[in-house]
Design goal:
six-stranded mixed sheet; Rossmann fold; alpha/beta; 2 domains; elongated; single chain; 354 residues
Length: 354
């Protein structure tokens, strides 16, 4: 009993010295970016335990699919799991980290020990992409021997119907074409609606959770969903997932004002992303895809653009490190988080070397 009390006191003392970092995520899009923050946190805050609460914890179900997706992603990025816990933290102290979908947004609530970041900047961070062998296996699994794979990612039902209509002529002209459709939600209803329209094996619906980012690697053209104004849907799916693989991207005009605005605007400038307003313009773009020198030029510009936007994970983890010490966040550092400026952080870092 005495030994147990001593251990508890030591544990409380350690938590006081190195308070835990509590990361709370409300949706899968945020969960997919957590590995890149954790990678930086392991370097800047190596002695602090990290507790991650995924959205599915709130459902109180026995299955925990989102946490499993996150574990797999962390392992893929070679991030040690020894100080990362996938559970609620009920102890004293700790710093709560939350994410929101508002662009250029950062809040530090010093009195209650909480920080809120925009999730979008983390989507640019470097990551381990599938290699040629892994891509070949995926392509064989979903595309067979097809030499033309079109992938629609995070599609709402009307967008799925629209993509099927827009690809009918292409499938007739090129029978080897495969159209892979990944629904955003309501997978059962989506499958029912789209299968009635397609009616043959050229169309494949994939409803597995958490694999869309890797599926983009197998396609020749990516159609990014949740972006068509006509259907009054949300702020747009992350277009950087296909961009990392250099895939030509088509999307709707709703992306212009999305929470992924920096990504959409930048990719439009590089030429890798094109906006289509309706089924007719989508079909025309699919019939005339970006190719040859134009595609290679767009890819080079895209890779340079993505690289120029990287480094935000270090900004966030530095803010967290300072927050753990109950210190005031320097203005220049806060501005680099709010205004999406990794170069401003680099300047601040050079001026504040430990």
């Amino acid at each position: 009993m005495e030994e147990q009390t001593k251990t508890e006191k030591m544990s409380r003392g350690n938590r006081k010295k190195n308070p835990p970092i509590i990361i709370k995520t409300d949706y899968l899009g945020a969960v997919k970016q957590i590995p890149f923050l954790c990678r930086s946190l392991r370097q800047k805050c190596p002695d602090n335990e990290i507790y991650i609460v995924c959205s599915d914890h709130r459902s109180h179900t026995a299955l925990d699919p989102v946490s499993n997706i996150l574990k797999n992603d962390l392992e893929r990025e070679s991030i040690p799991l020894d100080k990362i816990h996938f559970e609620h933290y009920y102890g004293e102290g700790g710093l709560d980290i939350k994410f929101n979908i508002n662009k250029d947004c950062f809040f530090y609530h010093e009195s209650c020990g909480a920080i809120s970041f925009s999730i979008d900047p983390l989507k640019f961070e470097r990551r381990k992409l599938l290699d040629a062998i892994e891509i070949k296996k995926l392509r064989e699994k979903y595309g067979g021997d097809s030499d033309n794979i079109i992938l629609g990612g995070s599609l709402n039902i009307p967008e799925g119907v629209m993509l099927v209509k827009a690809t009918r002529e292409i499938v007739k002209q090129r029978p080897q074409t495969k159209v892979v459709l990944v629904p955003r939600k309501d997978a059962f209803e989506f499958v029912s609606a789209v299968r009635e329209l397609s009616g043959h094996s050229n169309y494949i619906v994939v409803s597995e959770l958490g694999i869309l980012d890797t599926l983009y690697s197998l396609c020749d053209i990516a159609v990014v969903g949740n972006t068509w104004n006509k259907y009054n849907f949300g702020p747009g799916q992350n277009p950087l997932e296909p961009a990392f693989y250099g895939k030509p991207i088509l999307c709707g005009g709703n992306s212009q004002e999305s929470c992924n605005m920096h990504a959409y605007q930048g990719l439009k400038k590089t030429g890798l992303l094109r906006i289509t307003k309706n089924a007719e313009s989508l079909e025309e773009a699919l019939q005339n895809p970006l190719s040859g020198e134009a595609l290679e030029s767009a890819r080079t510009k895209t890779y340079n653009f993505i690289e120029s936007m990287q480094g935000v994970a270090d900004i966030y983890s530095e803010i967290i490190r300072i927050g753990l010490q109950n210190r005031k966040i320097p203005r220049a550092l806060a501005e680099s988080a709010v205004n999406f400026l990794p170069e401003k952080y680099a300047s601040w870092k050079n001026q504040n070397k430990d």
